[in-house]
Amino acid sequence: MIGGGSPGDGAQVRLAELVAALSLGIDLGFGQPMEHVLRQCLIALRLAERVGLDDGERMVVYYTALLVNVGCHSDAHEQAKWFGDDIAFKGAKYEYETRLAGAAAAMRLFGSGNPPLHRFRVGLEFTLAGWRDLAGMIARHSAIARSLAEQLGLPDAVQQAVGASYEQWDGHGWPGELKGDAVPMAARLAQLAEYTEVAHRIGGTGAATVLARKRAGGQFDPALSDLLCTDPEVILGGLDSARTWEAVIAAEPALGVRLSGEQFDAALTAVADFVDLKSPYTLGHARAVAALATAAGTHLRLAPGDLTALRRAGLVHGLGRLGVSNSIWDKPGPLGAGEWERVRMQPYLTDRMLHQSPSLAPLGVIAVQCRERLDGSGYPRGLPGSAITVPARILGAADAYQAMTEPRPYRPARHAGDAAAELRAEVRTGRLDSDAVEAVLAAAGHRVSGRREGPAGLTAREVDVLRLLARGLSSREIASRLVISPKTARNHIEHIYVKIGTSSRATASLFAMQHGLLPDEHLPST
């Protein structure tokens, strides 16, 4: 994907801006303040300069530091299922020095936020079967991050470093295949920078150097730890006062990577797919919303530039979901008042992730309004109809329709006819724009399925099983839904994993999205 930009739409978009914006959502997903990842990138680059790396090597460090934890939300569904709050679970990684201590702390979180009996049942279920969900989880995170680096067109060296980002100097990392100098330099730098950024932010330079010395020779490369501790002010100085976004974008080594319009669209789609992995109930949502909104915008004869912005806003409108726990997104019952407040933050968080980038900020202006309603009852700002742009009205209608026709933890997918009736009811109550709704419904009613059945040699039945597996259903639930035996369902799952070359729900879900299997196309109502 990387290459020189061409004149015209999107030619001046920098890949660094998109990856940096995504990193702000990763911060939120770890319970860290925004720009944690950006600061760790600066630390890693300062260390790289002291090591004497050239521009090409520093570019590998740059993108590795920005992408190191990007795969950690891909099994947030399982994290929330077992530990209550996936964000709190991930944020605890900075508190424990060893895997054993971290595992012991995780066990204490079983069923967090629920009554004692429920927590006991969750712990028992985990003991019997749930450990399979977590076995190799961290290794899968690095594999997912490596996959995104590949889709963004980053060099093999970046892909390898991101894939080894959880290896440790002593060989006790994940997946535990590398140790010492065999761990890529960029991975060693990014890991040291990540943990010392947290220590420095909480306890200052002294805390950062104590951490670096304590873990030298274990988690960290001792030579790099010594380098940081020898002159910590050079490595850590000015982080609190720096204009972090500008500093990181300006620090991209060599000539900045710029994307053509087509490359930009492909990068946005890749990022959208990875964000949608956060929950089995949102798989493929961004792609579907973008396609539906674009078709509706075409029906309304939007100008080409507005149509392009609408499509791209559809791809990024859900980025803020990274900052809200799956204990909320995947909750099977009604949400409490506090949980609703977190949901209402999602568009705002999306906007905050995009607003610092000149190329992405205009998309955020549309995306932040997609949950606003004409009568002022929407969120996050309660805007009146006169303040809601036409692209945002279309995006809001497309998002509402798509969400209704997808399954949610508290209800099955609604029939297309029911969703259409609900949208029109929203028009009658003055919440949604009539033209936008009718354009969305026209687009939905005339779509022809372009789904390719059987990628990687999957049979039609295996495709059915894959869709349900991606939605988070167990083999027993899949068997019940498809009226087959649990053993047959398990056999199908094993065959699917072999054919598509994976071994986890998260990567199978990504395969399904990338091959047009999710979400299901909506047939016109009859």
**Share in β-strands:** under 5%
Q: Helix/strand-derived class?
A: mainly alpha
Overall average residue pLDDT? 89
Please give the alpha-carbon distance between the first and last residues: 43 Å
Looking across the biggest beta sheet, what order are the strands in?
Answer: 1-2
Name a few traits of the molecule.
two-stranded antiparallel ribbon; Hypothetical protein af1432; 3 domains; mainly alpha; disordered N terminus
Overview of the structural elements:
Helices cover 60% and strands 1% of the residues. It is mostly helical. A two-stranded antiparallel sheet has the order 1-2.
Task: List the SSEs and their pairings.
Blueprint: E1 13-14, H1 15-29, H2 36-51, H3 55-67, H4 76-83, H5 86-91, H6 99-107, H7 116-134, H8 137-151, H9 156-163, H10 185-215, H11 222-230, H12 232-236, H13 244-250, E2 258-259, H14 261-276, H15 285-299, H16 304-316, H17 326-329, H18 337-344, H19 346-354, H20 361-367, H21 390-404, H22 416-428, H23 434-445, H24 460-470, H25 475-482, H26 486-500, H27 505-514
Antiparallel strand pairs: 1-2
Helix pairs in contact: 1-19, 2-3, 2-10, 2-13, 3-9, 3-10, 4-7, 8-9, 10-11, 15-16, 15-21, 15-23, 16-20, 16-21, 19-20, 21-22, 21-23, 22-23, 24-26, 24-27, 25-26
